[in-house]
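Annotated sample (chain length 327).
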Amino acid sequence: MESKSLNFVIGLFVVAGIAAIFIVGLWLTQKGSNEKTIPYDVLFEDSVAGLSVGSKVSYRGIRIGTVTYIGIKPDDPQFVAVRVAIGENYPIRRGDTASLKLEGITGSSYIDIEGAEWGSEIVPSTPENIATIPSRRSALGPLVKGLPELINEGTVLVQRFSDLLDEESREQVTSILANIDQLTGTLAEQGDNVDALLVTANDAGTELIEVSRSLQNVVTKVDTLVETLQITADGTNQLITEDGAELVEEWKITARSLRELSNTAQNFLAANEDSLEHFSQEGLYELTLFLREARHLVAGLTRVVDRIEASGARFLLDQHNPEVDAN
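Output written by the structure step:
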């Protein structure tokens, strides 16, 4: 009997608790419904996916109202008309703008209002003359528009990746991994050789730097030589330009003199043609004999002079004082 009474008491407390929770919720609902609100309209050009009737309206993170209506603007179907009920304690001011934002990871959206400066004029709104809150573009619109395309591309990517993971591809990947493992093992075994190769490469790099410096010096010298040649060429050009006319004039005078000398020689030969012919027939032969005898005479005199230079005074004394034979 005592256990049954205890169970009855526990059940009674549970029922009473549930009833109390229900009553408190009903009271809070009636209190919220009794709060006076001001209606406003918001026109969105982008998609309002995720927004529904009952979604919250916040002002810089503070909940100030709820969404009461969502529909297409009758006179302009490019806009989505959203009506919100804002608490009278949170008046909307000039400069306030509304935008859509995501709420958590559930995918639902809410309206966020911000932008007015302190002291701005309050925007009046009544059920008969509902004011409109300007909207601004948010990052949510492009994201919602591009989400289906992104999902499709992701699906295609997953499908292609799945196609790559067939039996043949897995065998190729396994072979590549085996080759990489073999390569790393070989490099580990040839560690000393690799170190030597790196040292050699370092030395080669140093030598290459030295060669580069030498080439730089050569290039510098070539530049200097080119500048010198340029200066020389400029001087030569100036010399030809300034003295060329005078030099040509001197060449003309020289050519004129040579022409006059040639004419004089021709006239002389023409005037003495007979004498020259007689000389070439008789006098030239005699002149040849004379020159031959003179050549012999010069050769003899040359030998005598050589002997005098070699023996000095003994050459003359030996000619007059021959040695006496002792016998």
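Annotation: The chain has four domains: 34-146, 157-189, 192-271, 274-327.
Annotation: The helical segments are 2-34, 140-164, 167-189, 191-271, 273-311, 314-320.
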